[in-house]
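S1.2 Input.
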Amino acid sequence: MPAGTNLFPTNDVLYRLLFENCMDGIMKTAPDGSILDANPAACQIFERTREEIIAAGREGLMDVSDPRLATMVEERRRTGKAHGELTARRRDGSLFPVEISSVIFHNPQGELRTCIIIRDISERKSAECERERLIEELQEALTKVKTLSGLLPICASCKKIRNETGQWQSLELYIRNHTEADFSHGICPECRSKLYPGH
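S1.3 Output.
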């Protein structure tokens, strides 16, 4: 290798390698919402070509009726950066959730530019909804479960239980009224030998 040869790529080449191979969607944009460039991951996320993304602009890619969009754009204008979740639109018009990080910077010519990093979070949102559904089902099931706790006054002879109103009820009736349990009757071996000694 000749002396003085640089083993590392220049900044421009390194930027292009990162831009082209990043797993997250990256778009170089202007603060007014126009799109200047989009990497392959962004094309895959939006199911559009680079040229289609550039032609669509912010209004074509994002759900402009989502109030979070205006809030995020204002936050970026005010602080120079913004992060949050928005609703995006694929080429077929279907909406899907995305996580977006965006910053404003000056390019070498002194022009204001923005960099946007995008992640499709459809699977994560679907998993969160499923988890919430399961939690609701569990909470609903728990509200239906009746439990016994504390001391139960029970007759030492007949095994009846005194209920809240002072009446004596059979053990079976009390448990049936205070829990989700029910009874299936049988005879244990010890009682069978006492009651039916010949069988």
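S1.4 Remarks. The first strand starts at residue 25 and ends at 29.
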